[in-house]
Automatic annotation (TrEMBL):
Keywords (A to Z) from UniProt: Membrane, Transmembrane, Transmembrane helix, Transport
Positions of transmembrane segments: 38-67, 137-158, 170-188, 208-230, 242-267, 287-306, 327-349, 355-377, 398-418, 424-445
Molecular functions (GO terms): cytosine transmembrane transporter activity
Family note: Belongs to the purine-cytosine permease (2.A.39) family.
Protein name stated in the entry: Cytosine/purine/uracil/thiamine/allantoin permease family protein
Position of the signal peptide: none
GO cellular component, as recorded: plasma membrane
Principal location listed in the UniProt entry: membrane
Xref: InterPro entries: CodB, Pur-cyt_permease, Pur-cyt_permease_Fcy2/21/22
Length: 458
C-alpha cells in the first residue's frame, strides 16, 4: 500500500515495507542536499572557515545520532514519528509535538520554496527580461516562482511515495553534478589557502556556541521526520544507518559548499554579507547561469518532498479522520502562504534566523523526551496497537502525559535562559545542554513515578 493511503497511526506490516537501503540513503542525502543547507553554510561562514567546519561536524553528528534513534523507533513500531510521540506525550498530548512539527516543516518548505523562487526570478530575467528579485519590480518574478513551485509540490505529493523516491533519485544525480561544477568555479577563482585563512570582520563574527545552536536547530528538524520513512523498511540496519549516513553526507557536502562559496565571494568583493549566502545570489555572482538556477529549483523539490511528508503526517496525527493525502494538500497550501512572509518582512535572513531560534527552542526537549522514554524508560518496548486506543496504555490522564508536557515547557525555558549565558553562547550552545538536562530530568521523574506506583501495588 502506498504512503499516500496510510494514516499516521497505521502500523505498516513488514511484508508491505519495500524501501531499500539506497532509497532511504538517497532520501536523506536529498533532504539535506538543498538550498536551505547551502544557506546555513553561508550563515556559519561568520565563524570563519575552521570555526564553521568544527561546528558543522559536531552539531550535525550529534543531531543525526538522534535521527538514527528515531529511525529505529519507526522500524520497530511501523508508525510515524508523531504517532510514536503518543507513547511519551499521550494520545492527545502528542498534538503539541505534532503542531510543532507542522509549523517547522511548513517553515522549511517555505524556506526552500523562497530560495527556489528567487532562482526562478533570475531565470525569468534571462528569458523575459523581468527584474530580478531585490530590484524594483522584482517581486513579480518571485511571486510567479512561488506559485510555480507550489504547483510542482502539489503534483509531486499527489503521485504518492513512489514519486518521492523518483524525485530523490533524479535529484541526487543533479546535486552531484551541480556541486562538482560549483566547486570547480569557486576554487578556480580563490585558493583553498585564502578561504581557510580568511578573517571574519570582528563586528560580524558569530560566537561558536551560536553556530552550534543554528546547526542543531537545522539538523534536529529532520529528526522528527525519521520514523515517517523508516516505517517503510523491513531491515533494522537500513533504519539506523541509512538516515545517519545520508543526512550527514548531505549536510556536510552542501553546507561546506555554501560556506566556501560565501567566503570566496567575501574575498573577491572584499565585503562579507550574510544576506548574500542564499544559493541564487551565490550562483549569480559566480556566473553559473540559468542552468544552475534550474538545478536549485529541482533540488528544493527533493528536500520539500520530505518536508511535506513529515508535515502531512503530523496533521494526520492531530486530525486522524483526515487522510494523509488530504493532509499533504493542506500543508502544501499553508506552506505557500508562509512563503510570502519574507516578501512583507523585507529580509529573508532575519526571517530565517528567527525561524531557526524557534525550531531549536521547541524541538530539542521533544526529541530528548521521546528518546529517553523509548530507550531508557520503556526499554524499546512500545505496544503500537495501543497508540490509538482511548483509555489504553498511552492514554495517561485525559489523553495527556502531563509530566512530559511540563518538562517540555521547562526545557523551553531552560533553553532561553542558557542562551543568555555568555560562556554557553561562546562555546557550547544551549540546544544539546538543554536536551541532556531535560532527558535526565525525565528519566529521574519517571523512575520516581514507577517506584511510587510499585509501592502502592505492594
Amino acid at each position: 500500500m502506498e504512503t499516500k493511503d496510510r494514516y499516521a497511526v497505521d502500523i505498516v506490516p513488514v511484508e508491505e515495507r519495500h524501501m531499500s537501503y539506497w532509497d532511504m540513503f538517497a532520501t536523506w542525502v536529498g533532504a539535506n542536499a538543498n538550498n536551505g543547507t547551502w544557506f546555513v553554510g553561508g550563515i556559519i561562514a561568520a565563524c570563519g572557515f575552521w570555526g564553521g567546519i568544527h561546528a558543522l561536524i559536531i552539531a550535525s553528528s550529534i543531531s543525526y545520532i538522534f535521527l538514527s534513534l528515531v529511525g529505529y523507533m519507526g522500524y520497530k513500531t511501523g508508525v510515524s514519528t508523531m504517532a510514536v510521540s503518543r507513547a511519551s506525550f499521550g494520545i492527545r498530548g502528542s498534538i503539541v509535538p505534532s503542531i510543532v512539527n507542522v509549523t517547522q516543516f511548513v517553515g522549511w518548505t517555505a524556506v526552500n520554496t523562497f530560495i527556489a523562487a528567487t532562482s526562478m526570478s533570475y531565470i525569468l530575467h534571462s528569458l523575459l527580461g523581468w527584474p530580478v528579485y531585490g530590484q524594483p519590480g522584482g517581486a513579480k518574478g518571485l511571486i510567479f516562482g512561488i506559485l510555480v513551485m507550489s504547483i510542482l509540490h502539489l503534483i509531486s505529493i499527489s503521485a504518492g511515495q513512489r514519486s518521492i523516491q523518483i524525485i530523490e533519485r533524479i535529484g541526487i544525480i543533479l546535486v552531484i553534478i551541480f556541486v562538482l561544477w560549483e566547486s570547480i568555479v569557486v576554487f578556480r577563482d580563490v585558493s583553498f589557502s585564502q578561504i581557510a585563512n580568511w578573517k571574519v570582520p570582528s563586528h560580524q563574527k558569530m560566537p561558536f556556541g551560536s553556530a552550534i545552536d543554528t546547526l542543531a536547530a537545522f539538523n534536529l528538524a529532520w529528526v522528527t521526520a525519521g520514523a515517517d520513512f523508516t516505517r517503510f523498511t523491513n531491515k533494522k540496519g537500513t533504519a539506523i544507518t541509512a538516515p545517519f549516513l545520508g543526512a550527514d553526507l548531505g549536510v556536510f557536502w552542501f553546507a561546506f559548499i555554501g560556506l566556501v562559496a560565501t567566503i570566496s565571494i567575501a574575498i573577491t568583493s572584499d565585503v562579507y554579507d550574510a544576506n548574500n549566502s542564499d544559493p541564487s545570489t551565490i550562483a549569480n555572482r559566480l556566473g553559473l547561469g540559468s542552468i544552475a538556477m534550474v538545478v536549485i529549483v529541482l533540488t528544493s523539490m527533493t528536500a520539500n518532498a520530505v518536508n511535506l511528508q513529515a508535515a502531512g503526517s503530523a496533521v494526520n496525527n492531530i486530525f486522524p479522520k483526515i487522510s494523509l493525502k488530504k493532509s499533504l494538500w493542506i500543508v502544501t497550501i499553508l506552506a505557500t502562504l508562509v512563503t510570502f512572509i519574507p516578501v512583507f518582512v523585507g529580509s529573508f535572513l532575519d526571517t530565517f534566523t528567527a525561524f531557526l531560534d524557534y525550531v531549536g527552542m521547541v524541538l530539542g526537549p521533544i526529541v530528548s523526551i521521546m528518546c529517553v522514554d523509548f530507550y531508557l524508560v520503556r526499554r524499546r518496548n512500545y505496544q503500537p496497537t495501543e497508540l490509538s486506543k482511548k483509555g489504553g496504555r498511552y492514554w495517561y490522564r485525559g489523553g495527556v502525559h502531563w509530566l512530559a508536557f511540563c518538562l517540555w515547557v521547562v526545557g523551553v525555558l531552560v533553553y532561553l535562559l542558557l542562551q543568555r549565558v555568555p560562556w554557553i553562547q561562546n562555546h557550547t550552545g544551549a540546544t544539546f545542554i538543554t536536551m541532556i538536562l531535560v532527558g535526565i530530568a525525565y528519566y529521574l521523574v519517571m523512575k520516581i513515578k514507577c517506584n511510587i506506583l510499585l509501592s502502592h501495588q505492594n
